[in-house]
Amino acid sequence: MSLVETIRLWQEGVCAADRKDWSAALDAFTAVQNPPAKICFNIGCIHLVLGKLAEAEEAFTRSIGCDKHLAVAYFQRGTVFYRRQNNGKAIEDFKEALAQLRGNQLIDYKILGLRYRLFACEKQKLCELVAIPVGKLFRPNEKQVAQLEKKDYLGKAMVVASVVDKDNFSGFAPLQPQTSGPPPRPKTPEILRALQGQPHRVMYEFIPETAEELQVLPGNIVFVLKKEKDNWATVMFNGKKGIVPCNFLEPVELHNKLHIQEETPVEEEMPESPTSTAPEKPRRPAPGQNRRSSPQEAEPPVPSPHILKVHYKYTVALRVQPGLSYPELLDLVCRKLELQPQHTELRYKPAESQELVTLTAKNLDAAWSQSKDNCLTAWCDLTEGEGFLPDSKPEESPQEAPPKEMGPTQVVAQYSYEATQPEDLEFQAGDVILVLSKVNEDWLEGQCNGKTGIFPSAFIQH
After folding, report:
1. Considering the domain boundaries, does residue 312 fall inside one?
2. CA 195 from chain center: how many Å?
3. Cβ–Cβ under 8 Å, residues 231 and 245
4. Which of 268, 302, 336 represents a domain boundary (last residue)?
5. Taking the CB of residue 69, how many other CB atoms lie within 10 A of it?
6. Which one of 213, 226, 276, 281 is separated from 454 by 20 to 30 angstroms, measured CA to CA?
7. Is the separation of the CB atoms in 244 and 221 below 8 Å?
8. How many domains, the chain?
Protein backbone atom coordinates (compact mmCIF):
# COMPACT_ATOMS: atom_id res chain seq x y z
CA MET A 1 0.00 0.00 0.00
CA SER A 2 1.31 3.46 -0.94
CA LEU A 3 2.11 6.12 1.65
CA VAL A 4 -0.60 8.38 0.20
CA GLU A 5 -3.30 5.74 0.69
CA THR A 6 -2.02 5.01 4.22
CA ILE A 7 -2.22 8.70 5.16
CA ARG A 8 -5.70 8.95 3.60
CA LEU A 9 -7.09 6.01 5.61
CA TRP A 10 -5.32 7.22 8.75
CA GLN A 11 -6.92 10.68 8.46
CA GLU A 12 -10.31 9.14 7.66
CA GLY A 13 -10.14 7.04 10.85
CA VAL A 14 -9.12 10.01 13.01
CA CYS A 15 -11.99 12.14 11.64
CA ALA A 16 -14.47 9.32 12.32
CA ALA A 17 -13.16 9.02 15.89
CA ASP A 18 -13.64 12.77 16.38
CA ARG A 19 -17.30 12.22 15.44
CA LYS A 20 -17.36 9.31 17.93
CA ASP A 21 -18.20 6.96 15.01
CA TRP A 22 -16.02 4.21 16.46
CA SER A 23 -17.10 1.54 13.96
CA ALA A 24 -16.13 3.69 10.94
CA ALA A 25 -12.85 4.63 12.61
CA LEU A 26 -12.01 0.98 13.22
CA ASP A 27 -12.85 0.08 9.59
CA ALA A 28 -10.50 2.80 8.30
CA PHE A 29 -7.58 1.85 10.57
CA THR A 30 -7.87 -1.89 9.91
CA ALA A 31 -7.96 -1.26 6.15
CA VAL A 32 -4.30 -0.16 6.29
CA GLN A 33 -2.00 -2.95 5.13
CA ASN A 34 0.97 -3.62 7.44
CA PRO A 35 -0.01 -0.78 9.79
CA PRO A 36 2.81 0.98 11.69
CA ALA A 37 3.03 1.19 15.48
CA LYS A 38 0.94 4.38 15.74
CA ILE A 39 -2.03 3.00 13.77
CA CYS A 40 -1.90 -0.29 15.73
CA PHE A 41 -2.02 1.82 18.89
CA ASN A 42 -5.11 3.63 17.54
CA ILE A 43 -6.80 0.30 16.79
CA GLY A 44 -6.20 -0.81 20.37
CA CYS A 45 -7.68 2.44 21.73
CA ILE A 46 -10.84 1.98 19.60
CA HIS A 47 -11.27 -1.62 20.82
CA LEU A 48 -10.82 -0.34 24.37
CA VAL A 49 -13.65 2.17 23.86
CA LEU A 50 -15.88 -0.60 22.48
CA GLY A 51 -15.11 -2.80 25.50
CA LYS A 52 -13.28 -5.49 23.45
CA LEU A 53 -10.39 -6.11 25.82
CA ALA A 54 -8.94 -9.17 24.06
CA GLU A 55 -8.80 -7.35 20.70
CA ALA A 56 -7.31 -4.27 22.40
CA GLU A 57 -4.56 -6.36 24.00
CA GLU A 58 -3.70 -7.91 20.63
CA ALA A 59 -3.52 -4.47 18.92
CA PHE A 60 -1.23 -2.99 21.60
CA THR A 61 1.00 -6.06 21.35
CA ARG A 62 1.32 -5.47 17.58
CA SER A 63 2.14 -1.83 18.26
CA ILE A 64 4.95 -2.81 20.67
CA GLY A 65 6.21 -5.31 18.09
CA CYS A 66 6.58 -2.46 15.58
CA ASP A 67 8.26 -0.10 18.08
CA LYS A 68 9.77 -1.63 21.22
CA HIS A 69 10.49 1.86 22.63
CA LEU A 70 6.88 3.14 22.55
CA ALA A 71 6.34 3.60 26.28
CA VAL A 72 2.71 4.70 25.90
CA ALA A 73 1.84 1.37 24.25
CA TYR A 74 3.24 -0.58 27.23
CA PHE A 75 1.28 1.73 29.54
CA GLN A 76 -2.00 1.25 27.64
CA ARG A 77 -1.57 -2.54 27.40
CA GLY A 78 -0.93 -2.58 31.15
CA THR A 79 -4.34 -0.98 31.75
CA VAL A 80 -5.92 -3.71 29.59
CA PHE A 81 -4.18 -6.45 31.60
CA TYR A 82 -5.38 -4.79 34.82
CA ARG A 83 -9.00 -4.71 33.58
CA ARG A 84 -8.70 -8.37 32.61
CA GLN A 85 -7.47 -9.09 36.17
CA ASN A 86 -4.06 -10.20 34.94
CA ASN A 87 -2.19 -8.18 37.56
CA GLY A 88 1.20 -9.84 37.01
CA LYS A 89 1.46 -8.87 33.34
CA ALA A 90 -0.01 -5.44 34.13
CA ILE A 91 2.84 -4.74 36.59
CA GLU A 92 5.42 -5.93 34.01
CA ASP A 93 4.05 -3.53 31.37
CA PHE A 94 3.92 -0.59 33.80
CA LYS A 95 7.55 -1.26 34.79
CA GLU A 96 8.57 -1.43 31.13
CA ALA A 97 6.76 1.85 30.40
CA LEU A 98 8.66 3.46 33.28
CA ALA A 99 11.95 2.04 31.97
CA GLN A 100 11.29 3.55 28.54
CA LEU A 101 11.10 6.98 30.19
CA ARG A 102 14.89 6.59 30.61
CA GLY A 103 15.02 8.56 33.83
CA ASN A 104 12.87 11.45 32.56
CA GLN A 105 9.80 12.68 34.42
CA LEU A 106 7.62 12.66 31.29
CA ILE A 107 7.41 11.98 27.56
CA ASP A 108 5.54 14.53 25.42
CA TYR A 109 4.05 12.71 22.40
CA LYS A 110 2.78 15.92 20.76
CA ILE A 111 5.57 15.97 18.17
CA LEU A 112 4.61 12.39 17.14
CA GLY A 113 0.95 13.32 16.65
CA LEU A 114 -0.52 12.29 20.05
CA ARG A 115 -1.64 15.15 22.27
CA TYR A 116 -0.74 13.41 25.51
CA ARG A 117 2.04 13.49 28.07
CA LEU A 118 3.01 10.31 29.90
CA PHE A 119 4.26 11.19 33.41
CA ALA A 120 6.28 9.10 35.87
CA CYS A 121 4.67 8.85 39.33
CA GLU A 122 6.53 9.43 42.57
CA LYS A 123 7.80 6.30 44.23
CA GLN A 124 5.89 4.93 47.24
CA LYS A 125 2.92 7.15 46.37
CA LEU A 126 -0.52 5.57 45.97
CA CYS A 127 -2.28 6.69 42.77
CA GLU A 128 -5.48 5.60 41.10
CA LEU A 129 -5.09 3.69 37.83
CA VAL A 130 -5.40 6.04 34.87
CA ALA A 131 -5.73 5.44 31.14
CA ILE A 132 -5.37 7.63 28.08
CA PRO A 133 -8.60 9.67 27.64
CA VAL A 134 -11.09 8.56 25.00
CA GLY A 135 -10.42 10.14 21.63
CA LYS A 136 -6.67 10.66 22.15
CA LEU A 137 -5.15 9.04 19.05
CA PHE A 138 -1.97 9.33 17.01
CA ARG A 139 -2.75 11.74 14.16
CA PRO A 140 -0.98 11.92 10.78
CA ASN A 141 1.31 14.82 9.92
CA GLU A 142 -0.76 17.89 9.02
CA LYS A 143 1.46 18.80 6.06
CA GLN A 144 1.09 15.31 4.60
CA VAL A 145 -2.69 15.47 5.03
CA ALA A 146 -2.81 18.86 3.31
CA GLN A 147 -0.95 17.41 0.32
CA LEU A 148 -3.75 14.85 -0.19
CA GLU A 149 -6.06 17.58 -1.51
CA LYS A 150 -6.03 18.17 -5.26
CA LYS A 151 -4.75 21.59 -6.26
CA ASP A 152 -6.05 23.59 -9.21
CA TYR A 153 -3.14 25.79 -10.23
CA LEU A 154 -5.06 27.42 -13.15
CA GLY A 155 -8.16 28.36 -11.18
CA LYS A 156 -11.56 29.21 -12.62
CA ALA A 157 -12.00 31.34 -15.74
CA MET A 158 -13.12 34.89 -15.07
CA VAL A 159 -14.01 37.97 -17.13
CA VAL A 160 -11.88 41.06 -16.48
CA ALA A 161 -13.71 44.36 -17.06
CA SER A 162 -12.08 47.77 -17.16
CA VAL A 163 -13.01 50.36 -14.58
CA VAL A 164 -11.88 53.20 -16.90
CA ASP A 165 -14.55 54.94 -19.00
CA LYS A 166 -14.25 54.65 -22.81
CA ASP A 167 -11.63 51.92 -22.57
CA ASN A 168 -11.66 49.86 -25.79
CA PHE A 169 -8.58 47.79 -24.94
CA SER A 170 -9.08 44.13 -25.93
CA GLY A 171 -5.83 42.57 -24.68
CA PHE A 172 -5.13 40.58 -21.55
CA ALA A 173 -5.15 43.56 -19.15
CA PRO A 174 -7.33 46.67 -19.46
CA LEU A 175 -6.17 50.15 -18.54
CA GLN A 176 -6.07 50.81 -14.82
CA PRO A 177 -7.00 54.13 -13.15
CA GLN A 178 -4.01 56.10 -11.85
CA THR A 179 -3.79 57.08 -8.18
CA SER A 180 -2.42 60.32 -6.86
CA GLY A 181 -0.04 58.67 -4.41
CA PRO A 182 1.34 55.30 -3.24
CA PRO A 183 -0.88 53.00 -1.13
CA PRO A 184 -0.62 53.35 2.65
CA ARG A 185 2.09 51.30 4.34
CA PRO A 186 0.87 48.37 6.45
CA LYS A 187 0.86 48.86 10.18
CA THR A 188 3.64 47.26 12.20
CA PRO A 189 2.22 44.16 13.91
CA GLU A 190 2.22 44.14 17.69
CA ILE A 191 4.40 41.03 17.66
CA LEU A 192 7.27 42.98 16.02
CA ARG A 193 7.16 45.67 18.69
CA ALA A 194 7.25 42.94 21.36
CA LEU A 195 10.42 41.47 19.83
CA GLN A 196 12.39 44.65 20.52
CA GLY A 197 13.49 43.35 23.96
CA GLN A 198 16.08 40.70 24.84
CA PRO A 199 14.56 37.17 24.59
CA HIS A 200 14.63 35.06 27.78
CA ARG A 201 13.21 31.62 28.62
CA VAL A 202 11.15 31.21 31.80
CA MET A 203 12.60 28.47 34.05
CA TYR A 204 10.00 28.42 36.85
CA GLU A 205 6.31 29.22 37.23
CA PHE A 206 5.69 32.71 38.61
CA ILE A 207 2.32 33.61 40.16
CA PRO A 208 1.77 37.39 40.50
CA GLU A 209 0.77 38.98 43.79
CA THR A 210 0.27 42.56 42.56
CA ALA A 211 -1.23 44.20 39.47
CA GLU A 212 2.18 45.13 38.03
CA GLU A 213 3.51 41.55 38.15
CA LEU A 214 3.03 39.22 35.17
CA GLN A 215 2.15 35.51 35.31
CA VAL A 216 4.48 33.23 33.27
CA LEU A 217 5.02 29.47 33.01
CA PRO A 218 8.15 27.31 32.47
CA GLY A 219 9.20 27.30 28.81
CA ASN A 220 7.55 30.64 27.92
CA ILE A 221 9.68 33.05 25.87
CA VAL A 222 9.52 36.63 27.21
CA PHE A 223 11.27 39.77 25.99
CA VAL A 224 13.09 41.75 28.68
CA LEU A 225 12.78 45.50 28.16
CA LYS A 226 14.63 46.58 31.31
CA LYS A 227 16.39 45.00 34.30
CA GLU A 228 16.40 46.84 37.63
CA LYS A 229 18.95 46.66 40.48
CA ASP A 230 16.38 45.06 42.81
CA ASN A 231 16.43 41.78 40.78
CA TRP A 232 13.15 42.52 38.93
CA ALA A 233 12.80 42.69 35.13
CA THR A 234 10.19 44.48 33.00
CA VAL A 235 9.12 42.05 30.25
CA MET A 236 6.66 41.69 27.35
CA PHE A 237 4.72 38.43 26.92
CA ASN A 238 1.70 37.84 24.65
CA GLY A 239 1.23 41.59 24.23
CA LYS A 240 1.17 42.17 28.00
CA LYS A 241 3.75 44.15 29.96
CA GLY A 242 4.73 43.43 33.57
CA ILE A 243 7.55 42.54 35.94
CA VAL A 244 9.00 39.12 36.91
CA PRO A 245 12.06 38.14 39.03
CA CYS A 246 15.33 38.11 37.10
CA ASN A 247 16.39 34.77 38.64
CA PHE A 248 13.34 33.11 37.07
CA LEU A 249 14.74 33.84 33.56
CA GLU A 250 17.64 32.67 31.41
CA PRO A 251 18.81 34.32 28.13
CA VAL A 252 18.16 32.54 24.83
CA GLU A 253 18.98 33.19 21.17
CA LEU A 254 16.16 33.11 18.61
CA HIS A 255 18.49 33.09 15.53
CA ASN A 256 16.41 35.70 13.68
CA LYS A 257 13.21 33.65 13.85
CA LEU A 258 9.77 35.16 14.34
CA HIS A 259 8.00 33.35 17.16
CA ILE A 260 4.25 33.86 16.92
CA GLN A 261 2.31 31.98 19.60
CA GLU A 262 -0.79 30.30 18.20
CA GLU A 263 -3.89 29.28 20.06
CA THR A 264 -3.49 25.76 21.40
CA PRO A 265 -5.82 23.45 23.29
CA VAL A 266 -5.72 23.57 27.06
CA GLU A 267 -3.86 20.29 27.38
CA GLU A 268 -1.08 21.55 25.07
CA GLU A 269 -0.57 24.68 27.17
CA MET A 270 0.35 22.59 30.23
CA PRO A 271 4.03 23.36 30.97
CA GLU A 272 6.55 20.67 31.72
CA SER A 273 7.48 20.13 35.32
CA PRO A 274 10.68 22.04 36.25
CA THR A 275 13.68 19.90 37.12
CA SER A 276 14.46 21.93 40.25
CA THR A 277 12.61 24.01 42.80
CA ALA A 278 11.92 27.64 41.92
CA PRO A 279 14.12 30.26 43.59
CA GLU A 280 12.63 32.66 46.10
CA LYS A 281 11.05 35.88 44.87
CA PRO A 282 13.04 39.06 45.49
CA ARG A 283 12.00 40.79 48.70
CA ARG A 284 9.61 43.64 48.01
CA PRO A 285 9.63 46.91 50.02
CA ALA A 286 6.87 47.78 52.44
CA PRO A 287 3.81 49.65 51.05
CA GLY A 288 4.54 53.32 50.37
CA GLN A 289 8.25 52.77 49.67
CA ASN A 290 9.82 53.00 46.25
CA ARG A 291 10.32 49.42 45.07
CA ARG A 292 13.33 50.30 42.94
CA SER A 293 15.03 52.47 45.57
CA SER A 294 16.24 49.59 47.80
CA PRO A 295 18.89 47.68 45.86
CA GLN A 296 20.45 46.43 49.10
CA GLU A 297 17.38 44.27 49.74
CA ALA A 298 17.68 42.38 46.47
CA GLU A 299 18.76 38.78 46.70
CA PRO A 300 21.69 37.67 44.55
CA PRO A 301 20.65 35.73 41.42
CA VAL A 302 20.75 31.95 41.71
CA PRO A 303 23.69 30.51 39.70
CA SER A 304 22.54 28.62 36.64
CA PRO A 305 23.31 24.85 36.63
CA HIS A 306 26.01 23.40 34.42
CA ILE A 307 25.14 21.30 31.35
CA LEU A 308 27.02 18.05 30.65
CA LYS A 309 26.46 16.72 27.11
CA VAL A 310 27.47 13.04 26.80
CA HIS A 311 27.98 11.22 23.47
CA TYR A 312 27.30 7.49 23.76
CA LYS A 313 25.19 5.38 21.38
CA TYR A 314 23.01 8.48 21.38
CA THR A 315 23.44 11.96 22.87
CA VAL A 316 22.04 12.99 26.26
CA ALA A 317 22.31 16.27 28.15
CA LEU A 318 22.27 16.44 31.95
CA ARG A 319 21.86 19.40 34.29
CA VAL A 320 24.49 19.20 37.02
CA GLN A 321 25.11 21.47 39.97
CA PRO A 322 28.44 23.37 40.12
CA GLY A 323 31.06 21.77 42.36
CA LEU A 324 29.95 18.17 41.74
CA SER A 325 32.85 15.72 42.28
CA TYR A 326 34.00 13.31 39.58
CA PRO A 327 32.56 10.15 41.27
CA GLU A 328 29.20 11.93 41.67
CA LEU A 329 29.32 13.09 38.04
CA LEU A 330 30.18 9.60 36.78
CA ASP A 331 27.41 8.06 38.88
CA LEU A 332 24.91 10.54 37.43
CA VAL A 333 25.92 9.66 33.86
CA CYS A 334 25.83 5.91 34.52
CA ARG A 335 22.33 6.10 36.04
CA LYS A 336 21.14 8.02 32.98
CA LEU A 337 22.72 5.58 30.49
CA GLU A 338 22.14 2.48 32.69
CA LEU A 339 25.84 1.59 32.87
CA GLN A 340 28.15 0.36 35.63
CA PRO A 341 30.54 3.06 36.95
CA GLN A 342 33.42 0.60 37.43
CA HIS A 343 33.32 -0.25 33.69
CA THR A 344 32.68 3.27 32.38
CA GLU A 345 35.12 6.02 31.40
CA LEU A 346 34.46 9.65 30.44
CA ARG A 347 36.72 11.61 28.10
CA TYR A 348 36.78 15.23 26.97
CA LYS A 349 38.65 17.38 24.43
CA PRO A 350 40.91 20.09 25.97
CA ALA A 351 40.98 23.52 24.33
CA GLU A 352 44.65 23.26 23.34
CA SER A 353 44.37 19.73 21.85
CA GLN A 354 42.21 17.82 19.37
CA GLU A 355 42.76 14.48 21.12
CA LEU A 356 40.38 13.11 23.74
CA VAL A 357 41.70 13.02 27.31
CA THR A 358 40.38 10.83 30.13
CA LEU A 359 38.32 12.87 32.60
CA THR A 360 39.48 12.46 36.21
CA ALA A 361 39.03 14.13 39.56
CA LYS A 362 42.29 16.08 38.97
CA ASN A 363 41.35 17.69 35.65
CA LEU A 364 37.58 18.05 36.22
CA ASP A 365 37.85 21.69 37.35
CA ALA A 366 40.07 22.52 34.39
CA ALA A 367 37.60 20.90 31.99
CA TRP A 368 34.72 22.99 33.38
CA SER A 369 36.82 26.17 33.20
CA GLN A 370 37.47 25.57 29.48
CA SER A 371 33.79 24.85 28.72
CA LYS A 372 31.73 27.39 26.79
CA ASP A 373 28.61 28.79 28.50
CA ASN A 374 29.01 26.19 31.30
CA CYS A 375 28.35 23.38 28.78
CA LEU A 376 30.94 20.57 28.84
CA THR A 377 30.96 17.89 26.11
CA ALA A 378 32.19 14.41 27.03
CA TRP A 379 32.45 11.02 25.35
CA CYS A 380 31.43 7.84 27.21
CA ASP A 381 33.37 4.57 26.66
CA LEU A 382 33.10 1.09 28.18
CA THR A 383 36.29 -0.34 29.66
CA GLU A 384 35.07 -3.94 30.09
CA GLY A 385 32.11 -5.94 28.74
CA GLU A 386 28.85 -4.30 27.81
CA GLY A 387 28.62 -2.42 31.09
CA PHE A 388 24.84 -2.62 31.42
CA LEU A 389 23.22 -3.17 34.79
CA PRO A 390 21.94 -6.71 35.30
CA ASP A 391 18.28 -5.67 35.50
CA SER A 392 18.44 -3.16 32.61
CA LYS A 393 18.08 -3.53 28.88
CA PRO A 394 20.15 -1.96 26.07
CA GLU A 395 18.69 1.20 24.60
CA GLU A 396 18.74 -0.17 21.05
CA SER A 397 17.35 -3.40 19.64
CA PRO A 398 19.78 -5.93 18.13
CA GLN A 399 18.79 -5.11 14.56
CA GLU A 400 19.75 -1.43 14.98
CA ALA A 401 23.43 -0.83 14.16
CA PRO A 402 25.50 1.27 16.56
CA PRO A 403 26.71 4.64 15.29
CA LYS A 404 30.22 3.43 14.46
CA GLU A 405 28.85 0.67 12.18
CA MET A 406 26.09 2.82 10.65
CA GLY A 407 28.36 5.51 9.20
CA PRO A 408 27.40 9.19 8.87
CA THR A 409 25.09 10.30 6.06
CA GLN A 410 23.88 13.74 4.98
CA VAL A 411 20.18 14.65 4.75
CA VAL A 412 18.21 17.85 4.11
CA ALA A 413 15.74 19.26 6.65
CA GLN A 414 12.21 19.39 5.22
CA TYR A 415 10.80 21.44 8.11
CA SER A 416 12.25 23.72 10.79
CA TYR A 417 12.67 22.16 14.25
CA GLU A 418 12.95 24.19 17.46
CA ALA A 419 14.78 22.56 20.38
CA THR A 420 12.70 22.00 23.53
CA GLN A 421 15.31 20.08 25.58
CA PRO A 422 19.09 20.56 26.04
CA GLU A 423 19.84 17.39 24.04
CA ASP A 424 17.75 18.48 21.00
CA LEU A 425 19.32 19.62 17.69
CA GLU A 426 17.76 22.80 16.30
CA PHE A 427 17.73 23.57 12.55
CA GLN A 428 15.85 25.39 9.80
CA ALA A 429 14.11 23.99 6.71
CA GLY A 430 16.72 23.42 4.00
CA ASP A 431 19.65 22.94 6.38
CA VAL A 432 22.03 20.02 5.67
CA ILE A 433 22.26 17.63 8.63
CA LEU A 434 24.97 15.01 9.15
CA VAL A 435 23.19 11.94 10.62
CA LEU A 436 25.47 10.17 13.12
CA SER A 437 23.23 7.39 14.46
CA LYS A 438 19.67 6.12 14.82
CA VAL A 439 18.20 6.42 18.32
CA ASN A 440 14.91 4.59 17.59
CA GLU A 441 12.20 4.44 14.93
CA ASP A 442 11.30 8.14 15.28
CA TRP A 443 14.52 9.87 16.48
CA LEU A 444 17.99 10.35 14.97
CA GLU A 445 21.25 11.88 16.21
CA GLY A 446 23.05 14.36 14.00
CA GLN A 447 25.21 17.47 13.57
CA CYS A 448 24.14 20.81 12.09
CA ASN A 449 25.66 24.30 12.29
CA GLY A 450 28.42 23.08 14.62
CA LYS A 451 26.00 21.53 17.15
CA THR A 452 25.24 17.88 17.98
CA GLY A 453 21.92 16.53 19.26
CA ILE A 454 18.84 14.40 18.55
CA PHE A 455 15.88 15.30 16.33
CA PRO A 456 12.69 13.67 14.90
CA SER A 457 13.27 11.69 11.72
CA ALA A 458 9.93 12.97 10.34
CA PHE A 459 11.46 16.46 9.91
CA ILE A 460 13.92 15.42 7.15
CA GLN A 461 13.57 14.35 3.52
CA HIS A 462 13.78 10.57 3.14
Report:
1. yes
2. 23
3. yes
4. 302
5. 19
6. 276
7. no
8. 4
258-300 per-position pLDDT tens digit:
444 444 443 444 444 455 556 666 655 544 444 444 444 444 5
Q: What is the pTM of this model?
A: 0.35
The values of phi and psi at residue 220, to 5°, are -65, 145
Q: Is 411 contained in some domain?
A: yes
d(CA 273, CA 23): 38
Q: Are residues 201 and 332 in the same domain?
A: no
Torsion of Cα atoms, 200 then 203 then 209 then 210, to 10°: 0
- Is residue 172 assigned to a domain? no
In a domain, 452, yes or no: yes
Question: Strand ranges (DSSP E) for 12-73?
Answer: none
Distances (CA, A) of 75 to 71, 87, 93, 216: 6, 13, 6, 32
What is d(CA 312, CA 309) in angstroms, rounded to the nearest whole number? 10
C-alpha 438/C-alpha 5 separation (Å) is 27
Enclosing H/E stretch for 369: helix 364-370
- Co-location of 17 and 137 in the same domain: yes
- Low-confidence stretches of the chain (pLDDT beneath 70): 121-130, 150-196, 254-305, 384-408, 462
> Rounded to whole angstroms, how far apart are CA atoms 361 and 370?
15
Neighbours of 450 (CB within 10 A): 5
Do both 105 and 210 map to the same domain?
Answer: no
